[in-house]
Amino acid sequence: PLVLGIETSCDETGVGIVRGHTLLADAVASSVDEHARYGGVVPEVASRAHLEAMVPTIQRALKQAGVSARDLDGIAVTAGPGLAGALLVGVSAAKAYAYALGKPLYGVNHLASHICVDQLEHGALPEPTMALLVSGGHSSLLLAPDITSDVRPLGATIDDAAGEAFDKVARVLGLGFPGGPVIDRYAREGDPEAIAFPRGLSGGRDPIYDFSFSGLKTAVARWVEARRRDGQDVPVADVAASFQEAVVDVLTRKAVRACRDNGVDHLMIGGGVAANSRLRALAEQRCTDAGIRLRVPRPGLCTDNGAMVAALGAEMVARGRAASTLDLPADSSLPVTDVSVPGYAQLPAP
Ligand code: ATP
Ligand code: MG
Ligand code: FE
């Protein structure tokens, strides 16, 4: 099926077009530069940027794919989770196009999309799929028997998300926003064993599949403050490398453990933090050692984009899942277990 996907949950206006597992277009307009001076995404600024970028980005994607909107089999859109005002722009645009073109509308979950995008890279997902989802707002181990309808959380962060920790540590080091890519870069020049930062929830009595990154973030901040107080230079590359190692060590160890415990022979890693070069390398090493096949999309498909939404939409169409009704709501706190949102008209009367 030929499906167009719209993503506006945060600061990326993404429009992707896929045919089944084949990526035809991936157009992204980002407002990240407008947020940088505030040190984080400003919701109102993001919403306005989406509004300006929406139609041109859709047109760019159609042109890139060389298809006509009339040929689409469906229009998919991120219905949540994310920033409410930002989501509304994408959902409204998707409804307008679906209504005007007479195409089915699919409101889908942003997190399931971060997993499903790997079909564009490595073909059909195994069933069940074991996924480590690591992004700006989430860090979870998920087992998905069916990515279009059944996603089960095994564990999640009890405080900060991994990406959030990268962003906060970058701020402490004065490296700007977003923090992930710049810490990744600095860490290449640093020693990952220079400083022994804590590995959260790694004790024998701790929950096996849950994560915690708040203590690590505080430990890094304290370490840096102590150096500054003593008038010493802060070895930015070593701090970045040691912090990053603490994050990816825990993520990969728990993910491999989850695969082993559940008898799953592969691991999918998705979300913005999956773009991290050290996470990719360590996961490859540990999966190889454990006889687990690793599936990670290329970095550009890990961070937010429209292709991932189109990928999940196409899978919904292929499996004959029900479309959403045109009263589809955006849900800023959509749970990971709700892979799609039906719309009010499909809900039973109260
Ligand atoms: P969610 O998907 O949970 O709703 P989000 O959509 O805002 O959150 P993503 O776009 O999936 O998040 O990921 C953004 C996060 O990924 C940011 O925290 C960013 O710092 C982080 N990130 C991006 N590239 C890298 C990298 N190379 N290394 C580490 N982190 C990275
Ligand atoms: Mg982003
Ligand atoms: Fe995301």
Report what the structure shows.
It is a single chain. α2 runs parallel beside α3 (84-101), α6 (162-172) runs antiparallel to α9 (236-261) and α9 packs parallel to α10. It is built from twelve helices and eleven strands. The strands form two sheets. It has a six-stranded mixed β-sheet, sandwiched between helices. Helix content is 43%, strand content 19%. The relative contact order is 0.19. Bound molecules: adenosine-5'-triphosphate (ATP), magnesium ion and fe (iii) ion (FE). Adenosine-5'-triphosphate binds at residues 9-10, 81-82, 110, 114, 135-138, 163, 166-167, 178-181, 184, 271-273, 275-276, 303-304.
Largest sheet: 6 strands, mixed
Unreliable segments (pLDDT under 50, ≥5 consecutive)?
none
* Count of beta strands: 11
Percentage of residues in DSSP E strands: 15-25%
The ligands found in this model are: adenosine-5'-triphosphate, magnesium ion, fe (iii) ion
Q: Which series of helices and strands comes N to C? A: EEEHHEHEHHEEEHHHHEHEHHE
Average pLDDT confidence is: 97
Number of H- or I-type helical stretches: 12
Strand order of the largest sheet: 3-2-1-4-5-11
Instruction: Determine the structural class based on helices, strands and strand pairing.
Output: alpha/beta
Alpha carbon gap, first and last residue: 35 Å
